[in-house]
Amino acid sequence: MSKQTLRIGLAGLGRLGRRYAENLARAVPRAELVAVSSPVEAERAWASEALGDVRVYDSFEAMLADEAIDAVFLVTPTSLHATQIEQALDAGKHVFCEKPLSLDLDDCRRVAKHAAKSASRAMVGFVRRFDESYRHAARHIEAGGIGRPFMVYSQTTDLADPSGAFLEFAPTSGGIFLDCSVHDIDLARWLLGRPVAKRVYSTGTVAMYPPLEALGDVDNGVAICEFADGRMAMFYASRTQAHGHDTHTDVVGTAGKVSIGRNPRADRVEISDAAGVRNTVVPSFYERFAPAFVTQARHFVDAVLDETPFELTIDDAVEATRIAVALRESLRSGQPVDL
């Protein structure tokens, strides 16, 4: 594109959607947030007050008809992603979609084919790829710093919520592996050089939230993924941590190991007293990855305007979903799943 600014419409103004909107409005220099949409009146009222001179629509379809929009950001329920991506591409808009691509693997594959034929471009966001610590580790691995990487351990564990508010969204989340571990799955493939998954196995337990049992879901899950070239990955996901949000990853190679986020902390303060030595921990994923969300948005905008490649493809999103869906199947069947 020859334009210097990308005019963006954002769909979805829930907790994460508001963060995206604020970033696009104030922290992405080459982006112009011109419109937002939400079917929820309170969310539209928030946008009118917080975002200034931005057009506010009550439906995605109405916003999509706005000819002044060059690209859309989708921060909507996962069940809508596949259809909305296709609608946006057909309307000539570029698309950024929050992960996951879909809860249904056939939908993912259909979207990938649709995007491949479109003149517009689409990217699914896996924000940890844009975190500077993970990028540093990736550069070190690519430079041969740990020899040949052959194993990844990666976890996504959230602070326990005594209110159980997340249970409202659990029926449409796709389960703990699609909702949480899909990030770790994508990281493992990225840091190991995109190997092809061969077999997965998962198990889990309900430690704090019994309503999950009726959904075939758990609040703590562990998984193993074997890749066709002999490499492997292990994942742990939890919704019950007492200390805060704790994401970390280890990559083991033939000449060393690299660890990212091994000691979770909110800042550089360490307190020593009669109770011992301690530090505080961020309460949620957004506080941990806030700068990465900005970097990710800037990457999308710059890539569209400068006609440069995205750092990850729709096929990466399809493969992460394929593995996560197989882990969900293994959890419910109690058996390994061949891919």
From TrEMBL:
<dbReference type="GO" id="GO:0006740">
    <property type="term" value="P:NADPH regeneration"/>
</dbReference>
<dbReference type="Pfam" id="PF01408">
    <property type="entry name" value="GFO_IDH_MocA"/>
</dbReference>
<protein>
    <submittedName>
        <fullName>Myo-inositol 2-dehydrogenase/D-chiro-inositol 1-dehydrogenase</fullName>
    </submittedName>
</protein>
<dbReference type="InterPro" id="IPR055170">
    <property type="entry name" value="GFO_IDH_MocA-like_dom"/>
</dbReference>
<dbReference type="GO" id="GO:0000166">
    <property type="term" value="F:nucleotide binding"/>
</dbReference>
<keyword id="KW-0560">Oxidoreductase</keyword>
<dbReference type="GO" id="GO:0005737">
    <property type="term" value="C:cytoplasm"/>
</dbReference>
<dbReference type="GO" id="GO:0016491">
    <property type="term" value="F:oxidoreductase activity"/>
</dbReference>
<dbReference type="InterPro" id="IPR036291">
    <property type="entry name" value="NAD(P)-bd_dom_sf"/>
</dbReference>
<feature type="domain" description="GFO/IDH/MocA-like oxidoreductase">
    <location>
        <begin position="134"/>
        <end position="258"/>
    </location>
</feature>
<feature type="domain" description="Gfo/Idh/MocA-like oxidoreductase N-terminal">
    <location>
        <begin position="6"/>
        <end position="126"/>
    </location>
</feature>
<comment type="similarity">
    <text>Belongs to the Gfo/Idh/MocA family.</text>
</comment>
<dbReference type="Pfam" id="PF22725">
    <property type="entry name" value="GFO_IDH_MocA_C3"/>
</dbReference>
<dbReference type="InterPro" id="IPR000683">
    <property type="entry name" value="Gfo/Idh/MocA-like_OxRdtase_N"/>
</dbReference>
